Amino acid sequence: MKWTRLQTFLIVAQEGSFSKASRRLGLSQSAISRQVTVLEEELKCQVFNRHWSGLVLTEAGEELYSTTTEMARELDLSIAKINEQKSLPEGPLKVSTTVAFGSAWLTPRINDFQRQHPRIALSLHLADNNYLDLSMRDADCAIRFTRQTEHSLVQTPLGFVRYRIYASREYLERAAPLERIEDLDNHALIVYGDYAPQPIGEMNWLLSVGRIAIDPRPASLTINSVYGIFRAAEAGLGVAALPYYLASRSDMLVEVLPGQLGPAFEVLFVYPEELRQSRRIRVFLDFLRAQADDDIAAGHLSKRL
After folding, report:
1. Cα gap 119→246, rounded to integer Å
2. For residue 304, is pLDDT > 80?
3. Cβ neighbours, 10 Å, residue 87
4. Which three-class secondary structure state does DSSP give residue 19?
5. Which of 43, 117, 159, 251 is the Cys-Cys partner for 301 at CB 3.0 to 4.6 Å?
6. CA quadruple 141, 293, 102, 243: dihedral positive or negative?
7. Taking the complete model, does pTM exceed 0.90, yes or no?
8. What is the distance of C-alpha 182 from the center of its chain?
9. Are the beta carbons of 232 and 289 closer than 8 angstroms?
10. End-to-end Cα, the chain, rounded Å
11. Residues of 47-67 as b/e, b for ≥16 C-beta within 10 angstroms?
């Protein structure tokens, strides 16, 4: 059974039709159909049920698809390992992290990394939900903010991020004085709202910090995005709790109540155990460690809580 026919089957199964597979492979539909027919003759069973709406895998096809997908992953991993043995690290490196951290902290540093390692093709996947599955190799590595539970993942701490309180100069000029934590009672507060994500379960802490009364302060505005809270604070809509790596990108924001400690979370570099010897992973981790150490020295990150 030829691997090329299995590859064709895999792509047809992924696309769900000969026409879509034809565009992806650059082959005619008839050529692809012939390869699938030969494969079915070799297996002596059908792998697809043909419907007017497309192709549907049979039970045998599902089994073959699962096995062929795993074979393709193993082949990709073997090729990556072979590339790692070359004199310079090279090849693709897909990194997953959140929108705010990826946009404000990681992206501005990518230019330096690419100058140091021009043969590594870096790609960033930024999302606040639907994290890519590292164990399934949807991404090669990730920057996460909670300890992962999978035993197959290696987790290396880079430091801790602590939230601080910020407001725009324009807002502070027209708002009531803000000199004590209790003064927050008289200010417009921008918070995350319900269902705050991990690891910052206390992302709405501005509503209760220093509060003598039992009831929390009312929120002026809720936004279910850290980056959205940042832009709202820049626009002068109120006071917000933000991580330094994000707030420091703005010339319009100033820190208020600097003695007040906000919630903190750990920054972790995570990758699958099977990539422990990867030179691409190693040089990227070394780069992130150096960047994090510079931030720790500058007081932007903490070595510990």
Report:
1. 29
2. no
3. 7
4. helix
5. 159
6. positive
7. no
8. 36
9. no
10. 57
11. bbeeeeeebebeeebeebbee
Q: State both tokens at 225.
A: 């995005």
Cα separation, 165 vs 144, in Å, equals 23
List for the chain the helix, strand, coil content (%; round to 5). Answer: 45, 20, 35
**Would you state the pLDDT for residue 111?**
94
Distance CA 297, CA 299 (A): 5
Q: What is the pLDDT of residues 135-163, one digit of tens each?
A: 777 899 999 988 888 888 999 999 999 89
Give kind and range of the element (H or E) at residue 84. helix 59-84
Spatial separation of the C-alpha atoms in residues 183 and 189, rounded to whole Å: 11
The tokens for 291 are 């960047």
The whole-number pLDDT of residue 213 equals 74
Q: In 3D, which of 54, 53, 57, 55 has the Cα closest to residue 45?
A: 57
Strand partners, 133: none
Instruction: Report the C-alpha gap between 242 and 7 in whole angstroms.
Output: 48
- Residue 153 tokens read as 């993942």
Q: Is the pLDDT of residue 48 over 90?
A: yes
State the Cα–Cα distance between residues 12 and 121, nearest whole angstrom: 27
The alpha carbon of residue 31 and the mean position of all alpha carbons in its chain are separated, in whole angstroms, by: 39
The encoded tokens of residue 34 equal 């012939």
Examine residue 199 and say whether the peptide bond preceding it is cis (omega within 30 degrees of 0). Answer: yes
* Residue 223 pLDDT: 92
Nearest-angstrom CA–CA distance, 16 and 51: 10
Tell me how far apart the alpha carbons of residues 67 and 62 are, in angstroms, rounded to a whole number.
9
Could you list the beta-strand ranges (E) of 36-78. 48-51, 54-57
Residue 105 gets the label, from left (phi > 0), alpha (psi -120 to 50) or beta, of alpha
